[in-house]
Amino acid sequence: QDAIDRKEKRSETFKTAVHGLETDTPALKTEELGRRAPQWVRDNLVTMCMRCKEPFNAITRRRHHCRACGYVVCARCSDYKAELQYDGNRPNRVCQECYIFLTGHTVLEDREGRHKGILEKGAAEVSSRSLLCSSLQLLDKNGKAGTRGWFVIPQDDPLVLYIYAAPQDVRAHTSIPLLGYQVRDMPQSESRHLFQLVQSRQVFTFVADTEELKRRWMRAMTRSAAGITHPEEEEEEDAGP
Fold this sequence. Notes:
Helix content: 10-25%
Number of strands: 11
Strand order of the largest sheet: 8-7-6-5-11-10-9
Distance between the termini: 64 Å
Radius of gyration: 21 Å
């Protein structure tokens, strides 16, 4: 019974673990792990380990790929080896979750039972069920420099804007509650398509890649700021009698 319980737990873990990547990075099915080479998640799509969520850096936390599932992980989360059938049963570097699933060995979990925080929603998973998502640039208070990121308004949380550093990150670095904000258009400046979120003294200035994308974001943010949670509500109002 203990062996059955462990097998079921590993299967459930991987149903969640391999779900939610973008369509250009198809996830392996559970039964294919180790039997078929995965398509690796590209390094530039993540800024943090897809397992422990710690940010990468060039010195102490570098990027590695799990040879079983293709996730981008840190050295600590990929300090395991398992024999992979697609590579002639040779030992390969794998993440902890793949190691547990493929070998049946248990690993002491230091994060078990920890609930997901409000920002700990994977960008790919949230984007697949979003009202709008795309890359934008958020300018600083001086309106000069800015940070480019991946911005999402989820369907299941349509009054909040989530900001990720990259479109495959497993944790957002900040969020902005949109309810009550005013959306302000700004004239084009140096070929930059600018718009703002304004509430009292709080001002956020965004740069979109195109004028069309800017308009889409302005419409989506205006709906959220007004408390409209479904696009069809606005469409019905616009249609009139």
